[in-house]
């Protein structure tokens, strides 16, 4: 989706046909259409597309390209923000960006350990429960932990 109208119709586009397997933002074009200068000006549009994709039963979308192929630190910061919003992966325009993107979107060792703890607890006892450290887990938390482990195993 590269225009304001595309973002407004995000769910209709995501759910338009069974052959649609994913959606994404074209942020450079959307910036131009909206007159956005700061990165934060796209956060609502980003969230809208993520929610539309998930509501339509699609995978979380990849984040749009980072246009500065030399500033890998800014890419890492942007990827971390995108991951926090719900993106899964990112399009790249140069091979040097790939290690930064991969590192940003793969689970950390701590996230993997936490996911393993949650899944083990769920296997030992069905239903909602509180872990020894006080965290509450239920089916949604277990599903998220399983996704984390699945993503970690893809490497």
Count of distinct strands:
2
Computed CA radius of gyration, to the nearest angstrom: 18 Å
| Main structural class | mainly alpha
Low-confidence stretches: none
Percent range of helical residues: 40-55%
> What count of helical segments does DSSP give?
8
The side-by-side strand order for the widest beta sheet comes to 1-2
Cα(first) to Cα(last) distance is: 29 Å
Order of helices and strands: HHHHHHHEEH
Strand content: under 5%
Mean pLDDT value: 95
Label the overall shape: globular
Strand count, sense and barrel status of the largest sheet are: 2 strands, antiparallel
List keywords for this structure.
single chain; 155 residues; mainly alpha; two-stranded antiparallel sheet; 8 helices
Question: What does this protein structure show overall?
Answer:
This protein has 155 residues and is an all-alpha fold. The chain has eight helices and two strands; from the N terminus they run H-H-H-H-H-H-H-E-E-H.
Write the layout of secondary structure elements.
Layout lengths: L3 H5 L1 H5 L12 H8 L8 H13 L16 H14 L12 H8 L3 H16 L4 E2 L5 E2 L1 H15 L2
Antiparallel strand pairs: 1-2
Task: Give a quick summary of the entry.
Helices cover 54% and strands 3% of the residues.
């Amino acid at each position: 989706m590269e225009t304001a109208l595309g973002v407004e119709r995000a769910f209709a586009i995501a759910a338009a046909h069974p052959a649609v397997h994913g959606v994404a933002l074209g942020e450079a074009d959307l910036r131009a259409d909206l007159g956005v200068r700061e990165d934060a000006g796209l956060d609502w549009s980003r969230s809208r597309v993520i929610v539309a994709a998930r509501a339509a039963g699609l995978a979380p979308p990849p984040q749009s390209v980072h246009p500065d192929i030399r500033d890998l630190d800014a890419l890492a910061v942007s990827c971390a923000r995108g991951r926090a919003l719900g993106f899964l992966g990112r399009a790249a325009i140069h091979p040097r960006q790939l290690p930064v993107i991969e590192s940003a979107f793969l689970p950390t060792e701590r996230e993997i350990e936490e996911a393993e703890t949650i899944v083990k607890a769920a296997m030992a006892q069905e239903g909602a429960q509180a872990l020894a450290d006080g965290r509450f887990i239920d089916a949604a938390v277990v599903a998220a932990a399983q996704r984390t482990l699945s993503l970690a195993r893809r490497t």
